[in-house]
Amino acid sequence: MSKKPYSSLLFAFAYFPNYDKAVEYLAENLADPEVWDFSDSIKKSYSILKNYLEHIFRKLQLEGKISYTYNNSHACFNTGLVTKNLEPIYALFETYRNIQQSVNPSQFCFKAFLKESDTQFLKIFPDNHPDIADFFQKPEDLIFNPRCRLIPQIDHIIEDNLLRFPAHIQALDSGEIRRRLDGAIEEVKKRVKTNYKLAVPQFYNNRIQLLLPLNLTAGSPNPDLALAIHKISADTYTARTCLTLKMAYNNARLIVKPQSVWLRP
After folding, report:
1. 3-state DSSP percent of the chain in helix, strand and coil, to 5
2. Do the beta carbons of residue 12 and residue 110 sit within 8 Å?
3. Which segments within the chain are labelled E, that is strand?
């Protein structure tokens, strides 16, 4: 089955005259300093931040947390990011005055990323400042429960995710791949029962899941993949998929900057 082509809801909502420059300014001059590129990046592209903005916007749109002026001349949303002094940062938009519907049907045009106290922002939005995205309807879902069982769907994980495995693991015969995966899952089940912080929450498909590190390479202290687990009953977790570490970090960063010993950019 072919995948649907990726479509940006943020870009459908608004036209960005120079998105790369805007993101660079947000990362380098406005937001609390953070690593927004993966360690193997050749140059700064802020790929983590761009992914974050797209999916935070989707969550906010779903929650109805885009604010508009009374005449719809401007819109804004809370990025969930803060300055180094912990001041909220908003994305501000104005009506797109040069609309060419056949080229870009967006109603709004991006104006700026602004901190809450910025006079430009306050003149337009003196109140009605939108809230951040809510990932905490069930706080208990964010923490691994060591009293629960974990029953992985090994066949599904291998059949649907083999291309995410490291090349040297993919090259092994199917029996060895299964043994490696079985062993890695059994190991992390023991580790997470004594260290619940090993499980990192992620947001994917509109639900909270937990990520666990999978060490498939013998002798290596570094994980190769992240196992995504979720509750199917009050006392049981299951796992149907594994992610590359980049995918896992992007998903986890939507909730909060991961403070993890194993999941880093």
Report:
1. 35, 25, 40
2. no
3. 14-15, 67-68, 74-82, 88-95, 108-115, 149-152, 200-204, 207-214, 225-233, 236-243
**What is the maximal distance between C-alpha atoms in the chain?**
65
Altogether, the residues listed in the chain come to a count of: 265
The predicted-structure confidence for 67-125, as pLDDT tens digits, reads as follows: 999 999 999 999 999 999 999 999 999 998 765 554 555 689 999 999 999 999 999 99
Domain boundaries, given as residue ranges, for the chain: 9-124, 139-253
- Specify the pTM: 0.90
Residue 1 pLDDT grade (very low, low, confident, very high; cuts 50, 70, 90): very low
Asked if 48 and 38 count as a contact pair (C-beta separation under 8 A), the reply is yes
Residue with tokens 């995504």: 228
Residue 97's contacts (CB-CB under 8 Å, 6 or more residues apart) are 109
139-253 topology per CATH: YaeB-like fold (3.30.2310)
The span from the CA of 255 to the CA of 66, in Å, is 18
The amino acid occupying position 161 is N
